[in-house]
Amino acid sequence: MATLVRLTGDFDLAEDCWQDAVEQALIKWPVNGVPDKAEAWLSVVARNRAIDALRRRRTELDKLYDLHAASRLQGGRPCVTDDDRLKLLFACCHPALPVAGRVALTLKTVTGLSTREVARAFLVSEATMGQRLLRTKTKIKNAGIALRVPPADQFADRVDGVLAVIYLLFTEGYSATEGPPTREALAREAIELALLMVDLLPAHNEARALLALMLLQDSRRRARISGSGELVPIDEQDRALWDRDQINAGLRALVAISPDQSPGPYRLQAAIAALHATAERAESTDWGRVVKAYDALLTIQYNPVIALNRLVALSFRDGPDQALELLPMLQEELVGYPLLPAVHADFLRRAGRIAAAIPVYRTAMDRARTGAERRFLARRLGELLNTA
Fold first, then answer.
1. Do residues 115 and 193 make contact, with C-beta atoms less than 8 angstroms apart?
2. SS3 (DSSP) at 225
């Protein structure tokens, strides 16, 4: 997809051709077998579709452009590469586009997330996200924005958008909004893209901090889901299952960040992840430092979800009763956020307010996004019902 968009300059055409190629694969592969180089097969079919479509366009201006694009297609490489994805990330994050539109379009086009998944990442409806994507594509077309890598002196205008996309891609892979609880391929792709960003911009602190953050978070992946397919919260995880090589790599990336600049949002989040990663037991986590890091993060990047995460840390530092007193301040901002009732129910459970926690757990189960979350909440609810 990334190569098709870069070479044709047309998002819709690229999507159509890629879907045609996948359709052909679904028809032919069950009969003829899967090719040895499946990605190359898909890419060649999609590129040929694009060449045919470009040649069919009618106006003189279109014909001139089509000949140019077709020649690039015929002379290009047959496989999508990480470099092409990174180039398309920068192209989509053009400063003339609204920030939300840049991130949403790149997520949809580069990473293959569905409109529904992108909408959930932004906490908006699928219809709203569909309109946002359409407006962004239209602006690219009408404004004649070139889908190319910008010169080095223009990187600064686009880096924030690129990093945001990479992290949202990782988040969907680390904690999927629907279906399986995790999507390992997406998380690994995000880490690969972050490595490319560090290679491209070795002096950029936030690029390196994002890499550290994702490595530290991903190190816990094997411990997050139990053998029965149930979500395991961090305070109950078997830390022997954490990937120590990834933790060490994340810590090295964090230490390599220049101390000369004030910490940005990814560096602060990486610092929080490092505090979790270096605690031998859940009880030995330095929750005071975690809360302070969240305080600093909220001063530079307020977000109600971040504020809720801070409240969870506060509940471990000062107790769940203190968190329950502050929770109403966030509930209005987080109406519809699926994890809010789960956090609320946990505060009530830990505070010993069993009767109040039971109905909130039921609400949390109704809003759970994945089976793993639902099974975890069902176990918690069952434990409470047995003691009520």
1. no
2. strand
